Amino acid sequence: MSIITVFSGNYCNEETAIKEILKQISYRHLTDADIVAKAAGLSNLSESKITRAFSTKTSVFNQLTHEKERSIAYLKLATAEIFAEYKDKILLAGFTSILVPAAIRHALRICLIADMKHRVSVASSSGMSESEAIKLIHKGDAERMLWTQSVLEKDDPWDASIYDMVLPSDKMSSTEIAGLVGKTLDKDILKASPASEQSIEDFLLAARVGAALAKEGHFIAAEADAGAVTLTINKHVLMLQRLEEELRAVAVKVPGVKSVSTKVGKKFYQADVYRKYDLETPSKLLLVDDERKFVQTLSDRLRLREIGSVVAYDGESALDLIKEEEPDVMILDLKMPGIDGLEVLKRVKQTSPNIEVIILTGHGSEADKKLCMDLGAFAYLEKPVDVNLLSETINKANEKIRQNRENA
Description:
Helices cover 47% and strands 15% of the residues. The protein is of the alpha/beta class and 408 residues long. Helix 1 (14-24) crosses helix 8. The two termini are 44 Å apart.
């Protein structure tokens, strides 16, 4: 038996085509939601954070948390574990279908796509206007393009080299699509064999190594061949030998790994410099202060202490950011034009009480301090601040957050 993967543009009749395929063959139907749920169980990431990996909008905090890269590592692991459990007779549809490596020869890779006129017609039938339909389709295509870039380094999500079959769902009925798929599955090349089953074990081992590396702050491509693991370093690194030793030390501990080798990839000689990310440091720090020179200098000084941050220059910008992104810790000035720090503190504690707010002001008073602490501030500090004291306060705030999460 075989595996089927289906990747599709939105409004390309994917659901009806899959339903028709499953009427003809008795396969286990898996979706992105199934893979995301399993990935969440394997990691310390929530389903909503993992699902965000499919979105065009990367979190402004991703430079600090690398949640997208971690999500992809655990999505691969979740997919590989499911494949290793069931071996075949699986139909996987959605973004995660792209994660299935080409080495798994008994997987039939299908892409469903239709022209814009057809897709707009399908979308409009649900009641939306033509302009709304076009906007939604373009958004979906952009998400798919960024996803194939992230996973396969392919700019075109409909690139025929990615798939075994690219089917025009506007020109073929669902019955015709299902019939063609059924006939194709009868071909010997798509029958499971010892070699193709070994490729699933290789997929699983590579995914386990990738997840183990991601847990340590390394985002490195891993491949496996019967226990022999190859790690590809695709960014320039100043101390290559040291990095290779560190990577091998992590990978060799993964059960099933017999040997580990490293190599540099085609992007190694580009300007980017590779670095390991310390995922134990404060992850989502927001600095809010209208004094641009001061806050940029503060951000640089914290970065030297391995504490990264995102900056907002006024209260309104900070509140807008918090609507979409919830930082762990906020360092907040009191005196700002427009919405001042006290008002920001009030609103944050009303809408996002889990955010720990450290007040840092040069114009405060004892009355202000009491009011801020009564409103729920974690700490009240005055400018000029000792950066070591500020770092210590940030770490204490993050420790409180960590304990609250463990006790939840």
